[in-house]
Amino acid sequence: MEETSLAPTLPSEVALSRLRAMADDFFGSLTPRTRATYQSNLAAFARYMDAPSVSEAIGALLRSDAGGAFTILNRWKTDLLASGLAGATVNSRMGAVRSLLGFANDCGLIPWRVKVRKASSESKDMRGPSPDQMKALFAACDGDEPINLRDRALLRLLYNVALRRAEACSLDVEHVDFERRVLSVLRKGCTVRVDVAMPESVARALREWIAVRGDAKGALLHNFDPTAKASPALTDDGVTNILHRLARKAGLDPKKVRPHGLRRSGITRALVAMNGNITRVMAFSGHRSPAMVVRYNDAQNDLAREVADAVEALDA
Questions:
Q1: Which of 125, 131, 300, 310 has the most beta carbons within 10 angstroms of its beta carbon?
Q2: Residue 80 sits in which domain range?
Q3: Residues 222 and 291 in one domain
């Protein structure tokens, strides 16, 4: 927590005390994974500001006014987009700073709020792997070697249950209930786990993996990195690296095989299976907004393209 302490930015002891309390309250209100994400994004902002610490970078904003803070954040957004980052990634990074400033306003430390227009998140082709590409990914980890069993379990969680990468990484062995055939999942933005049904293909893959892993308590998915010095638990970056390795083995473009892409493909598959019943698919995907489910529907996007082509053919 030392890196995210904002205390060094204000001169008076009273201000220091209030700022420490604000920082503790802010980070204490977040889930562990959100806290880690925010700390990472705040560290990225500190690097942009060429500040020696997160505290100094945020302190510069707190000492500014609304106009000055807006200018800094808007220029940062422009710089991030120019570097080639996706709009969603840019919004995530900026969201951490905006949230902290908003909390500072709620606490009465600053009298203003900053509103910077979000970056468009629809600029890139975010479609997930097709059914044939998913078959190729599963074929790339065929076999009974421990690493293949782990990889198949991961693919099943991301695709057949449409878990987010962070949700899969947060699973422990005790969160798998084979008798009830459910997973206890910590959904995005939640502090309490919820039951998520797992189909037989997922249960089978997890049984095979746990038979090799062992049923000792702890992270369900392990990494196989011999240089790992901390927890053996699979990390978010580790998931991405696994998918890229499998993509290369399957002859696919690694840049187009992303963790969230598998979730997207799983949701598209669910929409087809449920004949487009968004309410039922929301229970499967964990989304709170029907609009988000519609955005994930790659099948609908393909249908729109098919209709457009048919209309053009009429005019030919």
A1: 300
A2: 2-106
A3: yes
pTM, 2 dp: 0.69
One domain for residues 102 and 135: no
- Whether 184 and 195 have beta carbons less than 8 Å apart is answered as yes
**Could you tell me if 114 and 98 are in contact, meaning their C-beta atoms sit under 8 angstroms apart?**
yes
The neighbour count for residue 23, using CB atoms within 10 Å, is 22
Let me know whether 84 and 162 are in one domain.
no
Residue 102 has pLDDT above 90, yes or no: yes
For the chain, what is the domain count?
2
Q: In sequence order, which residues have a C-beta less than 8 Å from that of residue 16 and are 6 or more positions away?
A: 7, 10
What distance in Å separates the CA atoms of residue 196 and residue 161, rounded to the nearest whole number? 8
Q: Is 134 exposed, middle or buried (0-12, 13-18, 19+ CB in 10 A)?
A: buried
257 and 127 Cβ atoms separated by less than 8 Å: no
Residue 314: the pLDDT is: 64
CA 172 to CA 154: how far, in whole Å?
Answer: 13
80-100 residue pLDDT tens: 999 888 888 899 999 999 999
149 lies in a domain?
yes
**In sequence order, what are the residues at sequence separation of 6 or more whose Cβ sits closer than 8 angstroms to the Cβ of residue 80?**
89, 90, 93, 94, 119
Distance CA 149, CA 146 (A): 5
- Report if residue 126 sits inside a domain: no
Residue ending a domain, choose from 60, 89, 106: 106
186 and 294 co-located in one domain: yes
